[in-house]
Amino acid sequence: MVETSTDLNSKQANPVTRAPRPSVFAEFKTVPTLSSVEIERMYAIFSKYYINHNREQFTSDLFEKDQVILLRDSSKRTIQGFSTLLKVDLKPYGYQATGIYSGDTVLEKEYWGNKALGVAFLKYLWLEKVKTPTLPVYWFLISKGYKTYLLMANNFKTHFPRVEKSTPIQYKNIMDKFYGHRFAKNYKAEHGTIEFDHTACSLKEKVAEISDDLFKNKKIQFFAKMNPRWDRGDELACIAEMTLWMPLQYFIKKTFLKKKT
Asked: What is the pLDDT of residue 13?
């Protein structure tokens, strides 16, 4: 995933002196309803940030998903990013629960920091939770870059792996079953990573570099420790749990931060 915003409440450091960042809005579409023009634009954006891929692989992966969140420029309505989603029934894995698996996600650099995707995705997960309020809803995401990891770690109270404590056995078991089935030989349960060879699709150089300043962040340090070959395309297997109270928690957090600034 190429980052949109690592915190749904993130703001510009100096809004007085910086030019306004162009904005996007989120549009949900089922994958079969995408036009050839939309798919072509999606692949063009993807190709700007990733290496070791081709159109056939991209299309195959896309049509395995259920829905896509298109991120369109607020003025021009042109596609500037997207995220693909797959709803998974976890009963075959032995759990009365719903899983949402995130696929390819990317946003044009000039729109980084925009929170439209984060808010749209949070709403999507919450609506899934409302359908079955007594059953868990898990978000499965794989991260080859620290920005994806922070998007989860900064916004979901229940998420793993995390720097503060070890992953509880119940979450480890769910991840092992899901990722072990989905990625078969590539999932390394002992490390919690999905490991590929040098030909794997990976971020282009300098897209998500970890600078010395960034490395001071404990969560980024943790990500780099858990996924030391992230720059070669290896993925960190993660899980987060959606709750009915997350929108309220987000509202409280947003309100608190406004009062602090």
From this structure: 45
